Structures are given as structure tokens and as C-alpha cells.
């Protein structure tokens, strides 16, 4: 494995994704350089004079301009398409950077400083909307979970570089060189965007979906659309934006008061920013996906407002007992922790939440959250800060008070957001149209089963005769109808047949009939059938059990069967990796498909059946986005190890990689890698005839193991009989002195 492959594996990048991730990383890096240099230029000027008044004023003006820019962006995104509007956004950003350069060169007033800060915020918004809009349609929900933190880490080293430059820059003439560099970086980002457009279709395409059953109230749909997920995300974004703006303001103002000299202020701010962005880079690349896997979406989302509340509570203690130095260290630590959490953990995960939405709705929701509600949060913070700056003796306490209230509000909204996210995932993989029942049609045979009281019930022998009628093609339809009408009256004989009959075809048909008899005894017989080592019988039982709701009392049984199937999948994969025979490899692949189907059947008895059924249809769907939504829903529903095993079976990756993943989940398989002896030993209770035939062709029996072929000689399947006979003949030819056991 090369160094590049190891690095990609560490970051969760698959080989076919390497070039795309590289383009997005470079794109974000260039945007980050441009944006942070404009940010440095704006703050150098704003911190020179009266920042308590000028910063809130800049926040308010910037918010108004951002809302206007967001509305313009949304209009053109809808009418021009994403690819064309993304190019125009970068051209507009280049032009706006030139305007800011003129303001830096000729404007030294407060109005010019506020205009420069507002210009920075508009540039940040437009580049953010452009970058994440393109990312949202190129990557599906599963890729976004793995890769959003990677592609968005490109701006972290760029911002760290800009923060270092802030330490060195103190004069307006130097700022012009920064803006010129930003100008070049945006042009570079435009070229990378065009290269991305040549590699991918940057277009929002949405497949038709069913109407949402739980939607936003009609009065709010004009502002948020029909999705409750978008509603809670927008409101939580407003609260988070207001809190982060307040903490940024408190940090800058306290630094300004602590270090009166402008060069010292910028040196301290630049050092903190550089450390912040470097830490965020490490967290994004190495820890974000692991944190998401361990804490889940809800825990990861709540980490930011939860940390803010803890930090604000700590201020109440330090305010009475801490020195000026400890308070300065506190503001620095609070700002650093908030920025690292927001950039490295919260933002990538928050953006993933948009992915289950239809593509066009996804872009509209993202533009709404980032282009309207985030600026509204900044405007709210700017208004409160500006109103309080005339009362410096109370402003800090009141600022921390309203920040605590908004952080608590964000905590509640984000807690509810996760539930809406799961609902969107289910909606994304559900059927487009609900099935319509024809009048008078029995549902799952239950209506037919309920009419037994209106007919004469035959005795046990008569019912047995009907059951035997299932074996004859001519009498099967009549026998099936009669047994369905008898329902519970025929159940004792049906369950007895499941336990005693050696006829596999009959057992499958009887199991299907038991599935249409909604009685506890029927379910118990099917659960007992599912526990048998014969996997064909297990499949028949699981198909019939789809008509029953899960029972918590049976959960331990099905969890044990899940582990059995996972172990079998591991053995099959190991066999695939160990054999070079294409026929046997193809047969083992088919056996793995059966394992997948049985796993979904078992999951139907452990989790909400409708969700699992939708997920099963989704992962089998040809559309990549629907597959990804189905996998993401499973990831949030079933235990993580089980999901990882199921995902491995569904992934299109080399067999050796699948074996490695299963070994990491379940531990190495004892007893060697050859699966051929196991196939011969278990025979028809576990494998299809073609797999057994391929295995017999590969098997090299010894005098101690050749007896295992005897049951296969008496198989009713001609293919297995022929393969078993050929194996014995081959063995006799290679060992002529052994007395024939036939």
C-alpha cells in the first residue's frame, strides 16, 4: 500500500473519490486564503477606533447586505442553474475584492471601515454558498458524512496563514498587498471550479417523492418550505450565529482593552487565530468522522451549544474571583474552543443534515439558512451589542445573559432537529405513492382467514389431506384457498407439518400459509423454524414473519441469528478471497446476497418494519442518492457494528478490503481460509445446488473426510448427485487401494 493510499484510507477517501476530493480541497483552500485576507484587512481597521460601537454597527450593516446578497443568489440559483451561478458568484467576489481595495486605499473613516467589514461578510457568504452548493449536489449523504470534514478543511491552513499575516500587518499600504493576493486566490478558485464542472455534472436533479405526512404548518411554508427539518435548522442557525457573534465581539474588545497598542492587539489576535485554525484542521481531518461515529448526530450537534453554556457558566465564577489575566485567558479559551468546535465539528455535521432533502430543496434550504437566518442572527447580536455599548458597567453581564438564553434555545432546537433528520431519511426512501387497497381484497390473507366460522371445519385427517394437496401442482390452488379460509382451525396441523415434514418445498408453502394466520401459535412456529440450522427454512420463516409485528420478547433470538449470519458472511468473504475459481467466486457472491436478504428479514423483527422495508428497497435501488439515503437511515437505526457489516456487504470494494473490515468487526476466523470443506459438510441445509457443485469440483477429500459426500449422493437434486458421483470417482482414481464405500 502506497503512502497516498494509506493517507486516503486514514481520511476515509475511496480510490475513485481521490481526484474529486482534491479539487474540492484546493477550491476551499483558495477561497479560504481570499476570505481570511479580507477578514484581516477589515479587523485591522475596525479595531483601531472605538470597537465597542463600530463592531456592532458593522455586524448590523453586514447582516442587511448579506440578506440582500442571499436573496439575489437564491434568485439566480433558481433561474440560471448551479454551475452558471457558481461561476458568476466567483466573478462577483473578484470584483467586490477590487472595490474593497479601493476603499482601503482611499477611505480612512469609520464608514469605510464598516463598509470593508460588511464587504468581507458578503464575500464570505457568497463563497460559502457557492462551495457548499456545489458540494451538496456532487456528494450524496453517505459521502458527505465521510468527506465534508475533509473537503472543508482546505480553508483551515489558509486561514492559519492569514492569521500569521495579521501579526505582521499594521498599515493600510500593507493591506493592499493582502487584498491583491486575495484577488489572485479567487481567480484560482474560479479555475478549479471549472475543472470540477468538467469532471462532474454540477446540477440539482430531484426524483419525485411522496408528499410529506408531517409538514410545516401552512402559514410557515412560505418561509421554510414543507420540511420541519429546515424550520428547526434555520432557527437553530439564527441562535448559533447570534451567540458566536457575541463571543467573537467579547474576545476582540477584551483584547483591545488589554493591549492598547495596535501592533500588540494584532499580534495577540493573530496568534490565537492561527492556533485556532491549526487545531480545527487537525480535528477536521482526523477526528470529525470518528466523533460522529461515536457520539452520533445528536451528540455531535449538541456539543457546540452545550460547550457554550458551560463556558458562560464559568464566566460567572471568574467574574468574582478571577484576575484580569485569568479573564483574558478565559475569553481567549472560550473563543478558541467555540471556533474549533464550530469549524471542525458543527459546520460539517450541520451541512450533512441537508443531504436527505431533494436536490433542489436542499440548495434552497441551505441558501435560506446561510443567506437569511445566519445574517439575522448576526443582526440580532449586533443590535443587542450596539444597544448595550452605552452602559459599559452592565453590558458584559447582559451580553452573557442573552447569549446563554440563545444557546439554550439552540440546544432545544438541535435536539429536535435530529428527529426531523431521521424523518427526512425515511421520507427519502419511502415509496412515491402509497398502495391503494381494492374494495373487498383481503389484506395478507387475514380477511380470508376470518371466514372459517362460516364453513364446516374438516377433521385432522381432512386438513392433513389439504396440506398434502399443496405438493401437487393441480390441487395446490384449491388446497391453498381452503387452508386460508380455515385459518386458525388448520393451525395445529400446519405447525406440526413445519416441525416434522422433510419436504422442503412443502415447508416453504406451509410457512407462507402460517404467515397469513395472525395467531400467537403461528408466530411461535415460524420463530422456531427460523432458528433451525437449515437456512432455506430460515428464509421461508422470515418471509412469512413479515406479516407480524416485532415482539420484544423474541429480540434475543433474532439478535443471535444476526450474529450467525454475520459469521457466515465473514466465512463466505474469506472463501471468495482464497479461491481463484471464477465459478465458485460467483456462487459465493450469490450466497452473500442471500445473507443480505436474511439479515434484512431479521432486522424486520428487531426494528420498525416499515423503516427497514423502505431501507431494503432503497439499498437495492439503481439511483445512488436513494441508496445512500437508505444506508444513512440504517446507520442511525441499527447498532453501529451491525451497520458496518451490512454496509461492507453492500459496498463495491475489493474482497480483500471486505475481509479486513469483517476481521476488525468480528475477529479473525479460526481454522483457515478454505470454505470448500464447510460447503460440503453443511450441504443443502445452507447452500444452493450450484454452490455445492462448484465446491465439490474443488474439494480434495481424504480417507477421513470422504464420507461427507454420502448424503449428497442421495440428494433429490440431479446436479448435486452428478457432482457428488464425480467427486467419488475422482477420489477412487487417485486412491485405488481404498475399498469403495459405495
Automatic annotation (TrEMBL):
The keyword Transmembrane applies. The chain crosses the membrane at residues 21-45, 57-74, 86-116, 122-141, 148-169, 175-193, 229-253, 265-287, 299-321, 327-346, 367-388, 400-418. It comes from the Bacteria. Gene3D superfamilies: Leucine-rich Repeat Variant (1.25.10.10). Keywords: Membrane, Transmembrane, Transmembrane helix. This is HEAT repeat domain-containing protein. It comes from Hymenobacter taeanensis.
Amino acid at each position: 500500500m502506497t503512502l497516498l493510499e494509506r493517507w486516503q484510507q486514514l481520511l476515509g477517501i475511496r480510490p475513485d473519490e481521490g481526484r474529486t476530493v482534491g479539487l474540492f480541497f484546493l477550491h476551499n483552500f483558495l477561497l479560504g486564503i481570499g476570505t481570511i485576507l479580507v477578514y484581516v484587512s477589515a479587523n485591522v481597521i475596525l479595531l483601531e477606533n472605538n470597537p465597542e460601537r463600530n463592531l456592532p454597527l458593522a455586524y448590523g450593516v453586514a447582516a442587511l447586505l448579506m440578506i440582500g446578497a442571499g436573496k439575489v443568489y437564491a434568485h439566480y440559483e433558481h433561474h440560471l442553474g448551479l454551475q452558471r451561478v457558481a461561476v458568476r458568484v466567483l466573478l462577483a467576489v473578484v470584483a467586490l475584492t477590487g472595490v474593497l481595495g479601493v476603499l482601503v486605499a482611499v477611505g480612512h473613516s469609520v464608514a469605510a471601515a464598516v463598509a470593508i467589514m460588511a464587504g468581507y461578510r458578503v464575500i464570505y457568504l457568497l463563497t460559502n454558498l457557492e462551495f457548499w452548493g456545489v458540494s451538496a449536489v456532487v456528494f450524496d449523504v453517505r459521502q458527505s458524512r465521510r468527506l465534508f470534514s475533509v473537503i472543508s478543511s482546505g480553508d483551515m491552513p489558509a486561514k492559519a496563514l492569514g492569521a500569521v499575516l495579521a501579526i505582521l500587518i499594521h498599515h493600510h499600504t500593507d493591506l493592499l498587498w493582502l487584498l491583491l493576493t486575495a484577488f489572485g486566490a479567487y481567480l484560482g478558485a474560479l479555475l478549479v471550479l471549472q475543472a470540477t464542472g468538467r469532471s462532474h455534472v454540477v446540477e440539482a436533479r430531484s426524483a419525485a417523492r411522496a408528499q410529506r405526512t408531517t409538514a410545516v404548518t401552512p402559514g410557515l411554508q412560505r418561509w421554510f418550505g414543507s420540511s420541519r427539518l429546515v424550520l428547526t435548522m434555520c432557527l437553530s442557525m439564527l441562535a448559533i450565529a447570534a451567540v458566536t457573534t457575541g463571543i467573537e465581539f467579547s474576545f476582540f474588545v477584551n483584547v483591545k482593552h488589554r493591549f492598547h497598542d495596535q501592533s500588540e492587539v494584532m499580534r495577540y489576535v493573530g496568534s490565537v487565530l492561527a492556533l485556532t485554525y491549526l487545531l480545527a484542521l487537525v480535528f477536521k481531518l482526523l477526528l470529525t468522522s470518528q466523533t460522529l461515529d461515536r457520539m452520533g448526530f445528536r451528540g455531535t450537534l449538541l456539543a457546540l451549544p452545550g460547550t457554550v453554556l458551560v463556558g458562560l457558566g464559568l464566566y460567572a465564577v471568574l467574574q468574582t474571583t478571577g484576575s484580569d489575566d485569568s479573564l483574558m485567558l478565559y475569553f481567549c479559551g472560550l473563543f478558541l474552543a467555540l471556533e474549533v468546535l464550530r469549524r471542525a465539528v458543527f459546520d460539517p455535521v450541520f451541512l450533512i443534515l441537508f443531504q436527505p432533502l431533494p436536490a433542489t430543496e436542499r440548495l434552497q434550504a441551505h441558501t435560506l439558512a446561510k443567506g437569511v437566518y445566519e445574517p439575522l442572527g448576526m443582526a440580532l447580536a449586533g443590535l443587542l451589542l450596539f444597544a448595550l455599548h452605552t452602559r459599559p458597567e452592565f453590558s458584559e453581564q447582559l451580553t452573557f445573559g442573552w447569549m446563554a438564553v440563545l444557546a439554550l434555545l439552540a440546544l432545544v432546537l438541535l435536539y429536535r432537529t435530529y428527529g426531523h433528520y431521521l424523518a427526512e431519511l425515511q421520507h427519502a426512501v419511502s415509496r412515491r405513492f402509497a398502495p391503494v387497497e381494492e374494495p373487498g381484497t383481503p389484506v395478507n390473507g387475514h380477511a380470508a382467514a376470518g371466514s372459517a366460522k362460516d364453513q364446516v371445519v374438516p377433521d385432522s385427517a381432512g386438513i392433513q389431506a389439504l396440506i398434502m394437496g399443496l405438493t401437487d401442482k393441480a390441487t395446490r390452488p384449491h388446497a391453498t384457498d381452503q387452508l386460508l379460509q380455515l385459518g386458525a382451525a388448520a393451525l395445529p396441523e400446519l405447525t406440526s407439518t413445519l416441525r416434522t415434514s422433510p419436504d422442503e418445498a412443502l415447508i416453504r408453502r406451509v410457512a407462507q400459509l402460517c404467515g397469513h394466520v395472525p395467531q400467537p401459535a403461528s408466530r411461535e412456529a415460524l420463530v422456531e423454524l427460523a432458528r433451525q440450522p437449515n437456512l432455506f427454512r430460515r428464509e421461508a420463516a422470515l418471509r412469512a414473519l413479515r406479516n407480524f409485528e416485532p415482539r420484544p420478547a423474541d429480540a434475543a433470538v433474532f439478535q443471535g441469528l444476526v450474529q450467525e449470519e454475520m459469521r457466515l458472511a465473514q466465512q463466505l468473504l474469506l472463501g471468495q478471497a482464497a479461491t481463484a475459481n471464477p465459478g465458485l467466486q460467483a456462487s459465493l457472491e450469490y450466497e452473500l446476497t442471500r445473507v443480505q436478504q436474511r439479515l434484512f428479514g431479521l432486522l424486520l423483527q428487531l426494528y420498525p418494519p416499515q423503516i427497514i422495508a423502505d431501507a431494503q428497497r432503497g439499498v437495492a435501488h439503481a439511483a445512488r442518492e436513494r441508496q445512500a439515503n437508505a444506508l444513512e437511515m440504517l446507520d442511525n437505526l441499527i447498532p453501529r457494528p451491525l451497520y458496518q457489516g451490512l454496509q461492507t456487504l453492500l459496498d463495491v470494494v475489493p474482497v480483500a478490503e471486505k475481509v479486513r473490515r469483517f476481521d476488525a468487526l468480528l475477529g479473525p476466523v479460526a481454522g483457515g481460509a478454505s470454505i470448500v470443506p464447510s460447503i460440503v459438510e453443511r450441504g443443502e441445509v445452507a447452500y444452493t445446488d450450484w454452490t455445492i457443485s462448484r465446491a465439490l469440483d474443488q474439494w480434495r477429500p481424504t480417507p477421513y473426510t470422504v464420507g461427507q459426500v454420502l448424503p449428497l449422493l442421495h440428494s433429490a437434486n440431479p446436479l448435486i448427485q452428478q457432482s457428488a458421483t464425480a467427486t467419488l470417482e475422482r477420489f477412487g482414481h487417485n486412491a485405488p487401494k481404498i475399498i469403495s464405500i459405495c
